[in-house]
Design a protein that fits this description.
The strands form 3 sheets. The protein has a 10-stranded antiparallel sheet, with helices on both faces. The chain has a 3-stranded mixed sheet with strand order 1-2-15. A two-stranded antiparallel ribbon has the order 5-6. 26% of the residues lie in helices and 23% in strands. Helix 1 packs across helix 4. The longest helix has 21 residues. The protein is an alpha+beta fold. Strand 10 and strand 11 form a beta hairpin.
């Protein structure tokens, strides 16, 4: 039977409707745009096909914008926002507008063209996460930039056009609505109880147990109580981690293990779907402290792309989820997810 559930972080309602899962559209095969390694602009030897690198982890004797790198960060050739310009806000009738100032970067995660995130050597993904940490820190030195969003699109249905393993950073002059809601919810809970909201949610999930997928190495993976999408997962530190900028190499390696485990379970248990992986972390510290970000418990969100976003979601900003998160977690707990160290 259907029911409505409210997410205390998002401050939104979700309709959990198992009956919707019987529709033929629900189990659609994965579609993808394949780019041969011979034509891939992210492969070693084709560095001239990207813009000049911002930074890279390289072999000692290698030169910038040439082979010999392990992780490489370049500006997006087709940026949503550009670093040039000022942020003067202007009226446009009853609306406002501001120049599209920001930054849009690509993290090329490995020289290997065909590897998936869960197939990367763990140390390689650790280095990607540390690179993400350092790029966020550097971008926040620009006072015009208020929020840096990291995301990884895997497959055509998730918005990717190049299959070579990569993720993106988009630095914005404003805080996105969804993250602002989470900040305000965290601040209100801290003021009311003196505790971290996400810590309380994780503790409640661990006590309940039905929606937990994995609890290991200081990281918890669970299907949120009010999941908006089928098999949506959250991956977060078990206890309040502080600022993402404080992530060290040891924590990054154990986080890499947790992220790879989650992706591996989704791929094995759901027929290798396209997916989006997103980091929700507090915006620049001055803004974060004003908006409750000092209390914000960062986490990664994993969204398998199994169903399209339809009219109800577009019209309400709420969602209908055909798979109860308890069933999603039970299925993913049993999915093949070998954890052999690499």
């Amino acid at each position: 039977m259907s029911e409505l559930r409210r997410d205390p972080l998002e401050r939104r309602w979700v309709v959990i409707a198992p009956e919707r899962g019987v529709r033929p559209l629900y189990a659609r095969a994965r579609e993808s745009v394949a780019t041969a390694a011979d034509d891939c602009p992210f492969c070693p030897g084709r560095e001239a096909q990207t813009l000049a690198e911002i930074c890279a982890l390289r072999e000692p004797a290698s030169a910038p914008d040439g082979p010999g790198w392990r992780v490489r960060v370049v500006p997006n050739r087709y940026p949503a926002l550009r670093i040039e310009g000022d942020l003067a806000r202007r009226a446009d009738g009853l609306c406002d507008r501001v120049a599209g100032v920001g930054a849009h970067e690509v993290i090329i995660e490995t020289p290997e063209h065909a590897l998936e995130l869960d197939e990367l050597p763990r140390a390689q993904l650790r280095d990607v996460l540390l690179c993400l940490r350092d790029r966020r820190t550097d971008l926040y030195r620009d006072p015009r930039l208020r929020c840096v969003v990291w995301f990884r699109n895997r497959g055509f249905q998730a918005g990717s056009s190049v299959p070579h393993p990569h993720s993106q950073l988009l630095a914005l002059p404003e805080v996105p609505t969804r993250l602002r809601r989470r900040l305000k919810s965290s601040r209100a809970h801290r003021r009311r109880t003196g505790r971290c909201l996400t810590c309380d949610l994780i503790a409640a999930e661990l006590d309940d147990g039905r929606r937990i997928v994995r609890d290991a190495g200081g990281w918890v993976t669970w299907a949120p109580y009010a999941s908006r999408f089928p098999f949506e997962l959250s991956i977060a530190p078990r206890s309040d981690p502080g600022d993402f900028a404080a992530l060290d190499a040891a924590a990054a390696e154990s986080l890499a293990d947790a992220l790879q485990d989650a992706v591996r379970r989704v791929r094995a248990g759901l027929g290798d779907p396209d997916y989006n992986l997103v980091l929700h972390a507090a915006p620049r510290r001055t803004l974060a402290e004003r908006d409750g970000g000092a209390d914000f418990h960062w986490q990664f969100l994993l969204f398998p792309r199994l169903m399209p976003i339809a009219g109800f979601e577009w019209g309400t900003d709420d969602a209908v989820n055909a798979t109860p998160p308890e069933e999603a977690a039970r299925h993913l707990r049993s999915a093949a997810a070998p954890t052999t160290a690499r």
